[in-house]
Amino acid sequence: MAQEKKETTSSGLEWSLNVEDGSSKILVQEAGLATRAWLGLKGLFLKVRKFLEKAYDIGVNDPRKVVHCLKVGMALTIVSLFYYMRPLYEGIGGNAMWAIMTVVVVFENTAGATISKSLNRVFGTCLAGLLAFGVHWLACKSGEKFGPWIVGTSVFLLASAATFSRFIPSVKQLFDYGAMIFILTFSLVAVSGYRVDQLFELAYQRLSTIIIGTSLCILVSMLICPIWAGQELYALITSNMDKLANSLDGYVAEYFNPDDSNKNLLAYKCVLNSKASEESMANFARWEPAHGCFSFKHPWKQYPKIGAAMRSCAYCIEALNSCIDSENQAPEFIKKQLSTACLRVSSNSSSIIRVLAETIKAMKRSSKIEFLVEEMNGAVEELQEALKSLSELSNPPACKNTETVSSAAMETIPLMEVMPVVTFTSLLIEISARIKGIVKAVEELAKVAAFKDAAQDKCKENQPNNRLEQQGQTKDEETMKVLQRV
Amino acid sequence: MAQEKKETTSSGLEWSLNVEDGSSKILVQEAGLATRAWLGLKGLFLKVRKFLEKAYDIGVNDPRKVVHCLKVGMALTIVSLFYYMRPLYEGIGGNAMWAIMTVVVVFENTAGATISKSLNRVFGTCLAGLLAFGVHWLACKSGEKFGPWIVGTSVFLLASAATFSRFIPSVKQLFDYGAMIFILTFSLVAVSGYRVDQLFELAYQRLSTIIIGTSLCILVSMLICPIWAGQELYALITSNMDKLANSLDGYVAEYFNPDDSNKNLLAYKCVLNSKASEESMANFARWEPAHGCFSFKHPWKQYPKIGAAMRSCAYCIEALNSCIDSENQAPEFIKKQLSTACLRVSSNSSSIIRVLAETIKAMKRSSKIEFLVEEMNGAVEELQEALKSLSELSNPPACKNTETVSSAAMETIPLMEVMPVVTFTSLLIEISARIKGIVKAVEELAKVAAFKDAAQDKCKENQPNNRLEQQGQTKDEETMKVLQRV
């Protein structure tokens, strides 16, 4: 009850609510209208202020969002010219509305999404228009009695079929919007054709306005501060790699030296949650023309695979958490014995991830990778040796007359106490194994995209890396803020 | 190159492609047009067949999708009546198109999504219409010189601001579509108002057709075989719980008895990947009226929290994988020593998850939960005891004159070999700790949604559980198929 009261007070609408509990209703009414109105206003003001602060933060953290908004405003203002200028107005008539509608609906944040929606709109409209024309012609031939039935049935069947096609993953991925536009155009043309006789005129007008609208959107989104889905995907993957490497280093350092407070500990959570954006960006990137260092046929589909390999690593890092928070902590001297080897494995692993990020950034195969993987394997073996020597410590070779100290040490380390450090080590070894999965995925990308030395030189002219890194950094900070709030 | 050739052959478009490598171009041309056309047709036919088979599978696995498509077809056919029937045609005129457009754009799979989009459309249109009317009035007062500037500037500013608002998470969650409709309507009314003088007439017509369209959509989606986002969310969460429990049981059984092949092993992957759908469904469910056992104010926001707690468990199950595939396997007798305790922890843990699923399904607090958690804690302690006795085995209490057998056994079990089983056990203990997080989340839901005994009786009348379970099962099978293909 108390909660409900609080809710109603903060929204300032309490007098219109049906409070079932009579007593509390009276309580609320006692407060006096003016006081409550004042409290409501104050609450509203605080909410609005918080909202605006949040909006400001979003704009400051990613100024490109603001640029995108200005681009939408610009495109809409330009398209309005079709109404203002008389010659164009005469030519396109009331249908100029379609151009405005196209701009509003089609303009998306990334160039790829805009192009995808534009092409979907144009082809969906064309296909549906042609089909609707056929149905209309058939309906006219069938006379007044059967015509409406033919139109009605065809609308029912095609709308149902097109709606169903949107459930099929391959269609949904590429033509979801096109299917919707198909239904829309088909219904409009088939039905309105029954009344209006200027079907060709209508089709021509609609198509031309849509083409004007989509061309404008594509041009504005590609020419003015373009945001390429491909480049975003590429930045996301590389920055996620850096985050993964930082988290891995951070966790291992945290475990062995809890005093070194590391801010980047939770950065790997971004890797866990970026599946959906990776996939949608890879989809949109396929529609984009060549830009920056990316050719038109750049294998975008490979990036989500790299993302999946990274996620499989991140799951293990998530599990590392448990060892750090565990109540049973291994005695310091055991930790010390393993720390050098563990730190070596983690630094080798994270440097592999960083080199892979570098490989993708520079689009140049690194000669170091094989050597680094070898080194990581060596470090893992060394860690396993350290574990063996640890087991020798707790299992002194048979029962010679060992010193009392050693025997005491032996008895004070039950397996239970070694458990967290053993689990930690074992997860670390698993992480290093999963990193090989990332290496494989990146190597496949390098193969399919034909990464080579020459690519680096070509890329150096544009040098998008610095900007992307910077941008990655602001996003990092944003993420850390969000995580800290959580 | 070989790959490129294969690609072009299967798409049947090889003669129009620019092959940079001359030699392979000649090779392709040698094949003969007829043969290549035949191969292309065959490939196309196979692709179409595969596509249709996939579509058929989707329909069979979830017949409600087919029903949804028929509902869309029906709503569109009904709305077409506005064109066929003369009296209505006279009344609503060319604007009846807006009703068709509304149905196409607003009709979504779940009732919640349809209601959300409908309300967004109506309120976005109203708000934008009022604002646009104000701007139009101001523009008219300012004369021919300043009028266009006022309209243009207002379109630019409001479109930019509304586009920006779509980046703010709280707005995006609830009013994304409304913001788009706001931009659309404002632009159309403000700009067209500059030409057409019947602004009130236009606004009235547009609003009435939109209300007709949205009402029709809401009615059809709620009255004919409704698919409630809330019920879907509830089914997803409970079926994911069962999957998690099955996977956990399966993994532990697989580790200790590798011969028992278990199909449900990978079911937990669904839990890892359902974050996005949980969140979107929780958003849509908030718009739905009371249905089934759910009141209007049902705390839908709580379900994604339960989902998050389950995911944190699933991450650990993912890490369990590594122990099963590990090269180092503990000797059988050590495994045997731990198996009883491990199996007890896992069966206790999974039965807790199942009881939680039951709690949500029946909307009734279970009296067993506390007891089961106690029992799980007991099983964990027992497992820790078993580990202790294991460490005694490898660390025989100091150096009495132990028998040779024991000393030999001790030396044959280095820590390296015990490592996987220790890691497995430690992850299992961590999973049981994380299950307490699920218990907490479900208890919070039970508290906020006021689960009690009476709720169960109310629910029994509708009994959606059987249908939901069945549906969950077909989805399970679908998932398993997908996973097997991967």
Automatic annotation (TrEMBL), chains A, B:
InterPro entries: ALMT (IPR020966)
Compartments, as annotated in UniProt: Membrane
Key word Transport present: yes
Region entry Disordered, spans: 459-486
Coiled coil segments of this chain: none
Family note: Belongs to the aromatic acid exporter (TC 2.A.85) family.
Name by which UniProt lists this protein: Aluminum-activated malate transporter
Taxonomic source organism: Hevea brasiliensis
